[in-house]
Amino acid sequence: MIDNNNVKLRVEDLTLIFGKRKKEAIAMLKQGASKAEILEKTKCAVGINRASFEVYEGEIFVVMGLSGSGKSSLIRCLNRLNEPTKGKVFFKGEDITGESNNELLNTRRFEMSMVFQKFGLLPHKTILENAAFGLDIRGEEKSEREKKALAALETVGLQGYEDLYPSAMSGGMQQRVGLARALANDTEVLLMDEAFSALDPLIKSDMQDELLQIQKKVQKTIVFITHDLDEAIKLGDRIMIMKDGIIEQIGTAEEILTNPASEYVSAFVEKVDRKTIITAESLMFTKPSLLRLHKDGPMRAIRKMRDQGVKFLPVEDDQKTFLGYVWLRDVLELAENKENSLLKALKTEVPSVYKEYTVEEMLPLISGNYYPLAVVDKENGRLLGLVNQTSLIIEATRFGDEEVKQLIKKANDI
Amino acid sequence: MNRIIDLGKYIEIGINALEENFSFLWSAMDDGISWIVDSMNNLLLATPFVVFLLIVSLLAYYAKAGNKMFKKEGLREGVGLVLFIVIGLSLIYAMGYWKDAMHTTTLVLVSTFIALILGIPLGILSAKNKTAEIIIKPILDFMQTMPAFVYLIPAIFFFSVGNTPGIVATVIFSLPPAVRLTSLGIKNVPEDVVEAGRAYGATGKQILYKIELPLAMPTILTGVNQAILLALSMVVIASMVGARGLGSIVYQGIQQNDVAKGFESGLGIVILAIILDRITQSFANKKE
After folding, report:
1. B138 touching A, CB under 8 A?
2. With an 8 Å Cβ cutoff, are B196 and A106 in contact?
């Protein structure tokens, strides 16, 4: 989905310091001084501490952090509403931080548009005029900009409201206008600063769905700031977690949940509902040993199973397509009857899933049978790995391995 | 008491030097202001009373009713002020003070106009620039608290007697609210709207004209209202240096101990004040 070679925004070593003695503060940062030490010695606040990351074309890149983590300062460095103290921001390979005032104005007018937490609408202008604001600043003709603004308002579902004033609208509707204003400019990059944080929960969720819908259509590169982890997980193709101006981790929601880079991150993600995020791909054990249907006979199958101490093995055909499982007792029977092929013992009606299936989707499949779930490749039907029931239950319940065993023991005692 | 410093003398020397070295400037200012005052006066006096009444009434009605002008609600809003204007102005006319009332109107409008031309840019400057604010603020305090009579002395010195020194003193007196409220209005524009402007690539000028001034307009108009009222409060004082109008009649009343004259002309000033106040206030309070 995302072409990793197409970097839209690249941030290098970005540092933002508030205060007068910036040079001293930077020197102290280099020596590894903490934020508190720097504040005490130089009276400078470190907003962002040497952040480097890339944003790819067409992705929603969520920057997540609590207040004071530097996330809002960071997004303002991307269009230089905050002037970075040090470091560079590249847009399509071009250094924005070195731009002259005129170039910067053009970048803001034609390359990036922004959506704000507090909407930032003009109270004395109509919805239509507000949506056309960016185009007006660019100096476009009135008829031209109204046409574009109308189209943008339609995209966000506000047709018919053009002549109202913002004060007549609810927060959710006002933010739609904010979004329409950004879309009307038709820039490649959309910067969204806590865009939905001021909305109440139901409307917020609606707006998130709507943004995902719109994104499917317009395919913008979106940098989205939020303090809400659920929002980050719902929207983000990739998530960057920040703390005290430092990047803690960058990755997909699943990467961050399964492999948190620091204690902070793991504490942060602890309470997240993992069932909808963890997929078969990260749960499966890979490269299980397989039997080849026309190559391996019953005797060989029995030997293989005994070697590995298992009661069943998956079977593939000559094209390496996954067929099903054979069980030890069935194979033993075949061997007794002197059969040469495993075909009669093969159980083909087994649950199999693709690697992007989530725990939530896989759970119903385990009831009523003992097989692990086979994870197969969508394209060629090859077996990629197996997900066993215990690991699914562990993921779903968040019980540890030992806890599960004890629970089973207790149940047996009853 | 012995005087240790003779501050007044130095001020006098300074004023003298200003008068002598920049006389061309003062006479040019005098000519300019006199020209504006005369043309406006002639225009107002040439306008028949009924036409003037009609224009002011319509303006007041529009200020009150806005775009509901042709609806019942608009009528309810505006009818009171219009009635007051008709009765009040007719009373002034009937008392025989129409000419003087027009002189006073001219004086007030011209000085307010000059105060705004100077005050609004100064207000914008002090809202945008910290240093400018630090310099401007104490000067405004000084201008507002120094007794207004004191300005008359150098004003006569520079411009001799007539309308001009009166207008200059009035401008000095009514300038501070125009500056202050403009500055306040611009500072109170929500930060997020200005930031939105910057994020979309607006230049400083675009932000000022498309965002800050429109959003600050109600506050600025309150400043206009205050400037007008302060200017009106100066008309009697200005008449002491030869400004014409209702103020000079009041002044005559004081000198001749003439209660009738003093009361009639004073009432005229009150009527003008209420009309000007209500009209400008309605513009300031207009929402949308």
Report:
1. no
2. no
Task: Check B215 against A133: CB less than 8 A apart.
Answer: no
CATH topology identical between A7-272 and A281-397: no
3-state class (DSSP) for residue A60: strand
Judge whether A9 and A54 are in contact, CB under 8 Å. yes
> A9, A246, A258: which is closest to A112 by C-alpha?
A9
Asked whether the beta carbons of residue A113 and residue B200 sit closer than 8 angstroms, the reply is yes
Q: How confident is the model at residue A379 (pLDDT cuts 50, 70, 90)?
A: confident
Class of domain A281-397: alpha beta
Structure tokens at B122: 């100064």
Cβ of residue B224 closer than 8 Å to a chain A Cβ: no
Domains of chain B: 7-46+96-285 (1.10.3720.10)
Query: Crossing angle of helices A328-336/A298-308, nearest 10°?
Result: 140
Residue B288 has pLDDT above 60, yes or no: no
* Contact: B199, A191; criterion CB under 8 Å: yes
Helix, strand, coil percentages for chain B (3-state, nearest 5): 85, 0, 15
Handedness of CA B191, B194, B198, B199 (dihedral sign): positive
Contact list, B210 vs chain A (CB under 8 Å): 122, 136-137
Query: pTM for the complete prediction?
Result: 0.78
d(CA A192, CA A179): 9
* B200·A81 Cβ contact <8 A: no
**Are B190 and A134 an interchain contact pair (Cβ–Cβ within 8 Å)?**
no
**What residue spans of A132-218 are helical by DSSP H?**
133-138, 142-155, 171-184, 201-218
Report the alpha-carbon distance of residue A209 to residue A310 in Å, rounded: 45
Decide if B27 touches A, using CB distance below 8 A: no
CA dihedral A126, A127, A128, A129 (to 10 degrees): 50
Say whether residue B203 is in contact with chain A using an 8 A CB cutoff: yes
Nearest neighbour of B196 by CB, restricted to A107, A116, A185: A116
- A285 DSSP β-pair partners: A386
Domain ranges of chain A: 7-272, 281-397
| Residue B20 neighbours by CB distance under 10 Å | 8
Q: What is the pLDDT of residues B59-105, one digit of tens each?
A: 999 888 877 777 777 788 888 899 999 999 999 999 999 999 999 99
How many angstroms separate the CA of residue B140 from the nearest CA in chain A? 31
Contacts of B190 in chain A (CB under 8 A): 118, 120
**CATH second-level architecture of A7-272?**
3-Layer(aba) Sandwich (3.40)
How far apart are the CA of B219 and the nearest CA of chain A, in angstroms? Answer: 14
A:B CB pairs within 8 Å:
62
Q: Which residues of A121-148 are buried (b: 16+ CB within 10 A; e: fewer)?
A: bbebbbbbbbbbbbbbbbebeeeebbeb
**Angstrom distance (rounded) from CA A158 to CA A173:** 8
Q: What is the pLDDT of residues A176-203, one digit of tens each?
A: 999 999 999 999 999 999 999 988 888 8
Contact A137 B200 (CB under 8 A): yes
**What is chain A's alpha carbon radius of gyration, rounded to the nearest angstrom?**
28
Contact at CB, A81 and B203, closer than 8 angstroms: no
Q: Please tell me whether residue B25 adopts helix, strand or coil conformation.
A: helix
The letter for the amino acid at B164 is: T
Q: Look at residues A234, A235, A238, A131 and name the one whose alpha carbon lies nearest to residue A183.
A: A131
